[in-house]
């Protein structure tokens, strides 16, 4: 998408608002025409050349009225501009956020969170700025045309001198834009790096302290800061240089007018009023020149922002950014325009992903309001059998991952994926659940192919506990429910099943204790059991656990499995583990080695056949001892 198309799509998002804003600012910019003409009459009346018979005080009253009128217009203009700009920025941020949230969870953003925040903040502001300034350029061009016409009728030669700087400025701006764009891109990149580094440092304070790496980290931060300083200096210098070209070319024009006006006034072809009018309009022509220059600069900077925002989309069409979508400013309209947005998004993506299965099978589940309610599984969709064939995924940067994975899960079965560190266990479950971009292979739920696992494998079909649990700075209750409505004793049951009831009783505020970064810090095991409770509170057909054992003792893990099956004997489980607690319970074990299935079977069978399995089994025994 070109920068112009990008700008145009913003305008077409709310054409009515853009039009009203453009009209308001065109009137504001045209308004000085009137006081200019009154000023001319004022001076002409002093020298007896005035054709209007208002007298000096009448003209002064008119000037004051024109000034007051312009003040009112400017207030209206600011209101229309704020409304328009606000919507542009909101749309862009909303679409970006929606896109990020729809990405396969494990690779939602291609940069650090700090860098992503910098894109959300600076690049969105920059885009908003350019669209907003396009309105000013239109208004000022109208002013230039009307004032140009009036001035040409008075004196064509002098008019040329007033407008000559425009040509100079536009040429200068065009010549400088390539360099400016380069400097702007570099300064943005450097700012993102600094923001990214701050977020990394804040997130890893403990790791830095225990490694005694404070000085080295500060040194690294300083080098990022230095790079930013250099890049910003070049960017600023170039911008200021252009600004000075804009304003000084106007000063040149003023000087030329003064020189010529003296000669012409002596010859009697130019009145004092004409001179006053030229000087009065010159101020606004200056504004026109400066603002055209600014717009050209903003437009070029917008193309840098577009590039950076498109990078965040990870290959999706840039049209996603300006997709027509509801901003939910008026709740009644939300759902209707949500549909509109969704349709246009599918069209923009060339419907690559097909109809998202999750939405097709749970109509209405996409609406923000309905998401907080518990979604029920439609009858007949209960998991009977899950078949995985030829599942493969390779990480782009390392080329490692999983290859040619085949297995089936029956209803109520307990399958354990095991293997050495880095053998591909996590990649296997993430690929299955669509948390990684789609690789090769097929997945079938009761024989029906799953087209988009990312939206399909969500509650009530499946629930997942990741290896590293993520908790919010919020109450324990909200961390478990994540917006889901509490039903009867569902929360208590989930706490019991996750063996968390004792821990909750110990917390000062029970379930209402704030945990996470700004609250009580939970132990690793408590955090993982909170994540398990979050999963168990959502009744699902398929439960996927990625290595619970790392933070649970054998006894607690034993209890967790027992309680889970007491509560849901029909639940199907896929569990990543190397613990005997899970392995002895398993109906089926998959042994992974270097991204492939090395062996399969029950623990008795594998003890006979697989050396890898024997190592894991006896390794666990040694650990327990
Ligand atoms: N984000 C990533 N980018 C690149 N390569 C990765 C990424 N994550 C994992 N890998 C590589 O893919 C392979 C499989 O990793 P995976 O995390 O699936 O192993 P695992 O068996 O779950 O390990 P662990 O028991 O330590 O959790 C490893 O060689 C690993 O280095």
Task: Describe the model.
With 625 residues, the chain is of the alpha/beta class. The chain folds into two domains: 264 residues, ABC transporter transmembrane region fold (Up-down Bundle), CATH 1.20.1560; 240 residues, P-loop containing nucleotide triphosphate hydrolases (Rossmann fold, 3-Layer(aba) Sandwich), CATH 3.40.50.300. Helices cover 62% and strands 10% of the residues. It is built from 22 helices and twelve strands. Strands 6-9-10-3-11-12 form a six-stranded mixed beta sheet, with helices on both faces. The chain has a four-stranded antiparallel beta sheet with strand order 2-1-4-5, with helices on one face. A hairpin with a 2-residue loop joins strand 11 and strand 12. Helix 5 runs antiparallel to helix 6. The two termini are 63 Å apart. The site of adenosine-5'-triphosphate has 14 residues, from helix 13.
How does the SSE layout of this entry go?
Layout: H1 3-13, H2 15-30, H3 33-46, H4 55-102, H5 113-154, H6 156-203, H7 205-210, H8 214-267, H9 272-312, H10 334-348, H11 357-361, H12 368-371, E1 385-394, E2 401-410, E3 414-419, H13 425-432, E4 440-445, E5 448-449, H14 453-456, E6 462-465, E7 474-475, H15 476-481, H16 490-497, H17 501-506, E8 514-515, H18 524-536, E9 542-546, H19 554-567, E10 572-576, H20 580-585, E11 588-593, E12 596-601, H21 603-609, H22 611-624
Parallel strand pairs: 3-10, 3-11, 6-9, 9-10
Antiparallel strand pairs: 1-2, 1-4, 4-5, 7-8, 11-12
């Amino acid at each position: 998408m070109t920068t112009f198309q990008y700008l145009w799509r913003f305008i077409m998002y709310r054409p009515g608002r853009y039009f009203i804003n453009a009209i308001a600012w065109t009137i504001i910019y045209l308004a000085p025409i009137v006081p200019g003409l009154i000023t001319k009459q004022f001076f002409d009346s002093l020298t007896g050349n005035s054709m209007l018979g208002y007298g000096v005080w009448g003209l002064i009253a008119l000037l004051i009225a024109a000034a007051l009128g312009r003040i009112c217009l400017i207030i209206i203009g600011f209101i229309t501009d704020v409304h328009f700009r606000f919507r542009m920025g909101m749309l862009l941020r909303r679409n970006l956020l929606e896109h990020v949230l729809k990405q396969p969870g494990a690779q939602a953003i291609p940069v650090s969170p700090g860098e992503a925040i910098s894109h959300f903040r600076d690049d969105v502001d920059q885009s908003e700025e350019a669209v907003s300034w396009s309105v000013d350029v239109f208004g000022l061009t109208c002013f230039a045309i009307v004032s140009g016409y009036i001035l040409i009728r008075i004196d064509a030669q002098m008019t040329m001198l007033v407008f000559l700087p425009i040509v100079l400025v536009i040429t200068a701006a065009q010549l400088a834009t390539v360099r400016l764009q380069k400097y702007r891109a570099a300064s943005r990149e450097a700012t993102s790096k600094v923001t990214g580094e701050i977020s990394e440092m804040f997130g890893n304070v403990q790791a830095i302290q225990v490694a005694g790496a404070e000085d080295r980290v500060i040194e690294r931060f300083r080098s990022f800061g230095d790079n930013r300083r250099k890049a910003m200096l070049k960017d600023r210098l170039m911008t200021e240089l252009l600004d000075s070209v804009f304003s000084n070319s106007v000063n040149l024009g003023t000087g030329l007018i003064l020189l010529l006006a003296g000669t012409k006034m002596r010859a009697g072809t130019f009145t004092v009023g004409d001179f006053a009018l030229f000087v009065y309009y010159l101020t606004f022509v200056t504004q026109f020149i400066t603002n055209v220059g600014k717009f050209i600069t903003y437009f070029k900077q917008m193309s840098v922002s577009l590039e950076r925002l498109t990078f965040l989309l990870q290959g999706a069409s840039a049209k996603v950014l300006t997709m027509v979508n509801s901003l939910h400013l008026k709740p009644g309209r939300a759902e209707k325009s949500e549909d509109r947005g969704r349709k246009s998004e599918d069209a923009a993506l060339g419907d690559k992903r097909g109809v998202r299965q999750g939405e097709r099978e749970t109509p209405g589940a996409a609406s923000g309001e309905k998401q907080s309610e518990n979604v029920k599984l439609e009858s007949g969709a209960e998991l009977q059998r899950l078949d995985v064939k030829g599942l493969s995924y390779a990480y782009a940067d390392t080329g490692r991952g999983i290859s040619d994975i085949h297995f089936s899960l029956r209803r109520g079965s307990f399958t354990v994926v095991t293997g050495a560190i880095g053998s591909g266990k996590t990649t296997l479950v993430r690929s299955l659940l669509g948390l990684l971009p789609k690789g090769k292979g097929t997945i079938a739920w009761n024989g029906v192919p799953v087209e988009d696992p990312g939206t399909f494998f969500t509650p009530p079909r499946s629930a997942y506990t990741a290896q590293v649990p993520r908790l919010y700075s919020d109450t324990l209750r909200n961390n478990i429910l994540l917006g889901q409505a509490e039903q009867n004793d569902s929360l208590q049951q989930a706490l019991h099943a996750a063996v968390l009831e004792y821990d909750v009783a110990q917390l000062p505020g029970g379930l209402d204790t704030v945990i996470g970064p700004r609250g009580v810090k939970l132990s690793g095991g408590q955090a993982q059991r909170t994540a398990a409770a979050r999963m168990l509170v959502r009744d699902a057909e398929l439960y996927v656990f990625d290595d619970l054992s790392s933070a649970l003792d054998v006894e607690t893990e034993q209890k967790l499995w027992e309680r889970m099956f007491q509560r849901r004997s029909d639940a199907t489980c896929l569990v990543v583990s190397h613990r005997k607690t899970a392995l002895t319970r398993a109906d089926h074990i998959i042994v992974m080695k270097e991204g492939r299935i090395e062996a399969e079977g029950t623990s008795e069978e594998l003890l006979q056949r697989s050396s890898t399995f024997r190592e894991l089994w006896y390794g666990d025994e040694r650990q327990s001892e």
